[in-house]
Design goal:
homotrimer, about 290 residues, alpha/beta, Rossmann fold, 7-stranded mixed beta sheet, 5-stranded parallel beta sheet, about 40% helix, elongated
């Protein structure tokens, strides 16, 4: 029986990235659907729930993607709400790569430095990837600070973390080198999750920093988010500081995404969202 | 050479149910197209007609689906009109599951009781599934009555049967227990094809009914169309009456749909619509 | 690793013809996208560029199609502009079959008569197929004349040939039998690329013509573009003149298209547009 993945994408063109990755993760057939809303998702999910029975249910699964994470979360809720009793299919959310990218970045950094009880900063951390990174750092025992150019936005991000993941984080405003330096005071690790082509952390602040031991950057479009680092750096040692660029993190992200899709077909009741995907990357990154 | 199915769906999202069923019926590749009209169907059908020649034509076929049966019938006509001479592909219509569902229900009932020359009632039988069920009961030699809450609608349904299938059926108005009892007077079998969650046949009418030997219900959403029956009942014997719930009928429907799709690839000139699909279910249900 | 083709189609329904041909050319999976613009193409191309690395890049490729050749050319430019350095995928343009159809027609004619230094006429040659046929005839060493019902349109076609392919062609106005006869004076070959069902070349002009040795017609809808020929004629000898009808040319076109798609997966940096596709047909037609 063929492994069929129902790709529910909230954008007007379904993601090619997600489709290729799913095929490379062992999926036999993908049914691609675009412009998906919670309402339009339900009858499509019925189409996988009611076509295969019993143990065969696990050969169909659902992937929710698209560039808008909030839209994807609403579709995920609708998908989960469609199931009843034992009649369900496994489902994964990775809109905009939010879960797999954040998981890969945090796993890299957590493998480089002990985070337990330590301060970690997520720069420009109020977006979906930043908030998930904050969650994963917290799962590693770190005390997390998320920054934004506006204190109000940083505090709103903290409120979302509390609300969605029951997580307490600190907010900090970062407008210039001095306020970034202040936010990083005492931190052991930093992850830059800002917009493409936006430099967030000046070399004058990070280089030779007293406590900062691991640095990660997700911005692949020059200039880099962490000034003067290279995208392919993978635990590059600069005077005792280990640095991870977006291409190194992206390589792990890809493997994690493939592995998560593969796992969807091991049972008919998995929900792979933030925490579950971080568990996968941890197992995965160990080996 | 791969078996390619061209899925022409009149809805804005192509049916996942039909696609999974087609893959499970042995199709290698599906080309899914949505929002199909008779006009947009033609160049797509040319794409299967002109890419493979001679005996290879049978490795491409067309499936017409979507929730609107009338729209599907118009597309089917356009598909058939595209063919010329020996250059054709096999095609199947099953919009809203109308053919396979009605065929499965009637086959179950016809296997439970002899219908030849007997009265059979299709409750709320004016929709596409009900009308096809009436046709199939008639193929089994039954005298069919279709009911509606309005006599005018029931008579319109009879006119459609005459027009489309050259079939004479009786009309009856059913508004309450008394009128349902009256319509069922002397009937050997009944099939409820009403809206989801709509109870049509009270237990006080069917239980211990003098002539009624087989009962079928297509409504899977509680309350059931036939009061106090269970969806998974499959020829459940209640004091000599055999009862078929929607899940039991749905299981056969699925097998019929898979089998019909499989047959499409045995020749390049099959048209599987109502009567042809009922022939398939009869062969199938025997074995 | 599966061979994945990204089908970027500028029409609202992606071409079934192109998809079936690609599967028959050995592609394992097609990701079909419709209503593609240069803007919407870029993130989709990123989805093939960034999911597979190094030597694996050649297992993903891009096909640009649709009925509007100018729209397809704009998408092709956007696709090529997405690549950077060694990170690229092979891509083919065949909107409206322009390249493969013209290539097949010219290859047939060039195989039937020596064109070097000879006059060749493309009737109604100002459309995308006609202009590409003019290019390919020129690659065979012929002096090309393109005709139109209006001299202004014929001259505009010549300007496009100069602009796009740096090719000098002659313009001629053809309104009636006399002007067609005049345009064909001294020509060794002619190809009719006019609209469906439009007769362009009267039998009184072509039959027994003093110099005309090879004739091709792309119009499959009666009446034929060359009066009183048959669509399946394949080098049919009529008193020393060799005639190629649209079905004979179409058969070669199909093989060329399959072969081109197959070649896309031999490297990650091929661009198969007009000249490259004509090279393929020449190799192909020899064997």
């Amino acid at each position: 029986m063929k492994k069929i993945l129902l790709q529910l994408d909230t954008d007007s063109q379904p993601s090619v990235f997600d489709a290729v990755t799913a095929y490379d993760g062992g999926v036999d057939r993908i049914l691609q659907h675009s412009s998906i809303t919670p309402e339009s998702a339900v009858p499509l999910v019925h189409g996988v729930m009611f076509t295969r029975g019993g143990d065969d249910l696990k050969n169909s699964a659902v992937f929710v993607g698209g560039s808008d994470v909030a839209a994807g979360e609403a579709v995920l809720d609708a998908v989960k709400g469609s199931f009843f009793g034992p009649v369900s299919n496994s489902v994964m959310l990775d809109s905009n790569g939010c879960n797999t990218t954040a998981a890969a970045a945090v796993a890299k950094i957590a493998g480089a430095v002990d985070l337990k009880g330590k301060k970690v900063v997520v720069l420009a951390g109020t977006g979906p990837v930043g908030l998930r990174a904050a969650l994963f750092f917290s799962e590693e025992g770190a005390n997390v600070t998320i920054t934004s150019r506006s204190m109000a936005k940083a505090e709103k991000g903290c409120a979302q973390l509390k609300d969605r993941f029951d997580l307490t984080a600190q907010a900090a405003e970062c407008k210039d080198a001095a306020s970034v330096a202040s936010a990083l005071d005492g931190a052991v690790a930093v992850l830059a999750t800002g917009a493409a082509g936006k430099m967030l952390l000046p070399e004058s602040v990070w280089k030779g920093h007293a406590t900062l031991k691991a640095l990660g950057d997700l911005n692949a479009v020059p200039p880099s988010g962490i000034e003067n680092i290279k995208p392919h750096w993978n635990a590059k040692d600069i005077d005792g500081q280990l640095i991870f660029g977006p291409i190194a993190i992206g390589g792990l992200k890809m493997k994690v995404q493939r592995s998560c899709v593969e796992r969807l077909f091991s049972a008919n009741d998995l929900v792979l969202d933030a925490r579950e995907i971080y568990e996968v990357v941890k197992e995965f990154h160990k080996n």
